[in-house]
């Protein structure tokens, strides 16, 4: 087998370079009167955990490699289907300590796979020692296999799309997650323009990532879901790794002043448009449009709007039904930016049932020019937006958002690596982590309320 290079992140290169200098100096030092009189260096010794032949390895057990009398130069992890069917996956990456004496896998193992770990270390004379461990990973039991839903609105509007600067990463699972910290640690977010961000949980099946500030515009973001082998709950394991990629487009920010009945649109720092609007009337609390940052969620044409979704019958004097030309959803409680040709109070008074009423031509412009995730900031209504109403995630201040993260630490999106660890307990006979473990810093290859 031809050795493959150990994959390392840029953040580790400087430390490892210093370690290499130390090793080189050591190789040139005389052994004096001790050791082999010929001056030959002792052979490197390599140990791998899980041990060779193990048949009951938990999917979330870490792989560890340790070396004595030498430095680790190569680790290759092959994960194959039982019986050797299909091509083996060699994408697992790991993290080396500064001495190059300990290597720990970044991610967990694919349930049911046959794994071969090949590790190489060099002694001070450059002589190589190779060690191999072959073991079998326990399969995930039917009915206890965590999977990511791919048919949700958030996923449909995110994966492979161009989005606004406020767009969150929303991951919905098919089963409840108890070990939220491990699952967080397995979901790696990398952006071309570095920032810091964190995950929050809304219930046990939804995880949401957002940066501290809006995404910088014009960049690509990649989300690697390294969930295969992560124990999300007792006996429940993730079964598949997957990735999401999206483009952050131009920065378009909309502010709507409830008291002034006025909308302002800015794009890339320049004022672009101004529109007269009419928001929710204050005759009933349920009609007041919420203040706070909303996000564009969906766009519709010829969209039926009615309060019959709230149980209001057609014979009720408060009943309404309209089909609007253009409608842009900004919450899950029925708030839209939409055409309202019947409203003669645009720019003068708030007369709607909770939506933002606009002229037809103005609403068409908003429809045409909006991307999912564009921020819509409504101010001065006196009724606050809820954090879990649609995509109201930006109404939670950053400090509070960070506190609600299961790991409690921000993620640096500048390169691969996450806070915490996706692993469970090491397999018996495995090595120990000397502080550089966890998910590491190596590259991962490894009901309606508003209305018209």
TrEMBL record:
Stretches assigned to the L,D-TPase catalytic domain: 252-379
Ranges of Low complexity composition bias in the record: 407-423
Signal peptide range in chain numbering: 1-24
Active-site annotation: 338, 355
UniProt entry tagged with the keyword Transferase: yes
Skewed-composition ranges (Gly residues): 437-452
Keywords: Acyltransferase, Cell shape, Cell wall biogenesis/degradation, Peptidoglycan synthesis, Signal, Transferase
PROSITE patterns named in the record: LD_TPASE, PROKAR_LIPOPROTEIN
Family annotation (InterPro entries): Big_10, LD-transpeptidase, LD_TPept_cat_dom, Transpep_catalytic_dom
Chain intervals for the UniProt region annotation (Disordered): 81-102, 405-452
Pathways involved: Cell wall biogenesis; peptidoglycan biosynthesis
Name this protein carries in UniProt: Ig-like domain-containing protein
